[in-house]
């Protein structure tokens, strides 16, 4: 009888311990940007200095569980510009995720989000170069705004990804 009581006590203690540790784990879980990514308004951004075509740049972002960056506000755009300035010490032009390659004039973001905010330069997008400009570059011209560019030009790029769950 004594043995049974001890066993029950032991089981109770174990259950309490596992509940407590479960609570602790949940308490310490949070969403963070992986090493090398910069948190901006709840998402993670990465400047890629390697010169790539738009499609190569998007594939590179995909290999890091991201996409070429979508931009949803002027404040967010300024933070991305600051990220490029900090990494390259210059306001370099870079690919971001906008493209109208599927149908001329219909712009989509590579990450599938809806394009509401835009920051086109005056006169852009102009689909210039014999109607072959279908990919979005940022930091264009003295105004550092957006331009549609020929997709197979090689320039740096900016990726975006969701924060990942980190427990510990
Ligand atoms: Ca176009
Ligand atoms: Ca253009």
Automatic annotation (TrEMBL):
Residues 40-160 form the C-type lectin domain. SMART domains: CLECT. InterPro entries: C-type_lectin-like, C-type_lectin-like/link_sf, C-type_lectin/snaclec_domain, C-type_lectin_CS, CTDL_fold. Residues 1-22 form the signal peptide. Keywords: Disulfide bond, Signal. CDD domains: CLECT. It comes from the Eukaryota. This is Ladderlectin-like.
């Amino acid at each position: 009888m004594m043995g049974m009581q001890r066993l029950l006590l032991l089981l109770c203690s174990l259950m309490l311990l596992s509940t407590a540790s479960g609570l602790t784990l949940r308490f310490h879980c949070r969403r963070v940007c992986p090493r090398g990514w910069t948190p901006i308004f709840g998402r993670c951004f990465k400047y890629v200095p390697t010169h790539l075509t738009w499609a190569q740049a998007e594939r590179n972002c995909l290999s890091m569980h991201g996409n070429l960056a979508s931009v949803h506000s002027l404040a967010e755009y300024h933070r991305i510009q600051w990220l490029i300035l900090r990494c390259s010490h210059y306001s370099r032009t870079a690919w971001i995720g906008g493209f109208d390659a599927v149908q001329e004039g219909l712009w989509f973001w590579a990450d599938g989000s809806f394009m509401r905010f835009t920051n086109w330069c005056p006169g852009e997008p102009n689909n210039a170069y014999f109607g072959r400009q279908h990919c979005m570059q940022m930091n264009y011209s003295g105004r550092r705004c957006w331009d549609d560019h020929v997709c197979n030009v090689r320039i740096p790029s900016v990726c975006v990804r969701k924060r990942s769950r980190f427990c510990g």
